[in-house]
Design goal:
Helix content is 43%, strand content 23%. It contains 8 helices and 11 strands. The strands form 3 sheets. Strands 1-8-3-6 form a 4-stranded antiparallel β-sheet. Strands 2-7-4-5 form a 4-stranded antiparallel β-sheet. By secondary structure, it is of the alpha+beta class.
Length: 224
């Protein structure tokens, strides 16, 4: 970012918010007056159905923009919750239209993030519908690990992944038992090991091959 872009974001920013693990950030159906960028920590996007079942939409990592859906459509179609203690950069939703009008390059960055999210959701839908359980779990771990590498969260082939197996199961449409057995299979094959909140991947290319991923590179995301 240029200094001018930094200055623009500083003017758009209204403060920072620290939330504890388990705290709701945005609620499904709500009309939040604020938008956020995750500065530190991790969280979950998820949607509840009327029968009480939960679909995890995505894992939130540092740098992710949160609340654009409410900013554009007026209300959230899913909820956002902190998995760990999180520090959030806070923006006023009411300022987003003037922000877009006055700062087209930054507006394009927001559009780029939305397009990447759409691309990811398409891949996730294909995973839930067409990949086997082994391929699905391998796909999810490979995607998260690749994001972690881009964010410099991977050290000595390990990254912190403080989610529960139930979160992964709810993301992939699998039972907890099936998810646990599939993780055990990946561990036995020495492809990936996820335990005590730490994900270890010795060879991302081998894991990606099982997941049917052609390219594990992650494009540089703009910073908001």
């Amino acid at each position: 970012m240029s200094q001018e872009e930094v200055n623009v974001m500083q003017r758009f920013k209204v403060g920072e918010l620290v939330v504890d693990a388990g705290a709701p950030i945005l609620m499904q159906g709500s009309n939040s007056p604020q938008l956020f960028t995750a500065l530190h920590g991790m969280g979950l996007r998820y949607k509840y159905l009327q029968n009480g079942k939960r679909q995890v939409v995505n894992f939130i990592l540092p740098g992710d923009f949160i609340g654009l859906q409410a900013g554009v459509m007026g209300e959230m179609g899913h909820s956002v919750e902190a998995t760990t203690k999180m520090t959030l950069c806070v923006f006023n939703r009411s300022a987003i239209w003037s922000f877009f009008k006055d700062n087209p390059e930054r507006a394009f960055a927001v559009t780029w993030l939305a397009a990447v999210e759409e691309h990811f959701l398409g891949a996730a839908l294909a995973t839930v519908g067409q990949r086997t359980a082994l391929e699905s779990v391998a796909w999810a771990l490979a995607k998260v690990y690749s994001r972690g590498e881009e964010l410099d969260l991977v050290h000595n082939s390990q990254m912190s992944l403080p989610f529960r197996q139930q979160d992964l199961a709810d993301a992939l449409g699998l039972s907890l038992v099936h998810t646990n057995k599939t993780l055990a299979t990946l561990r036995k094959r020495q492809l990936a090991h996820w335990s005590d909140g730490v994900l270890s991947v010795s060879d991302i290319d081998k894991l990606a091959k099982v997941a049917m991923i052609d390219d594990t590179s992650v494009p540089k995301r703009p910073i908001l």
